[in-house]
Amino acid sequence: MYKTFTQNDLIRFLYGEMDNSEAVLLKQALCQDSDLNSSFLRLKETFVGLEKNRFKTSASNYTIAKIKSFARGYSSCQTQLLGRIDLNLN
Length: 90
Known about the structure:
By secondary structure, this protein is mostly helical. The protein has 4 helices and 2 strands, in the order ααααββ. About 5% of the residues are buried.
């Protein structure tokens, strides 16, 4: 049986979201179809690059302090309308 695989299928495979039987079919298709294989290699290269840079950027201490300072300026109180919570400026 031959199944046509899409880029979504390749992405699902890279993220480990494919069941075993479908993954086996994809691996066989990668060996037989050079266009699919080259698409997979490009996607894999992009995937590896994204994973390497995933945690490189983080909020600076200054940014976190500014967010906390802004949040301290508000307090929450329950309103009488449907139990909704409103934020009030202190």
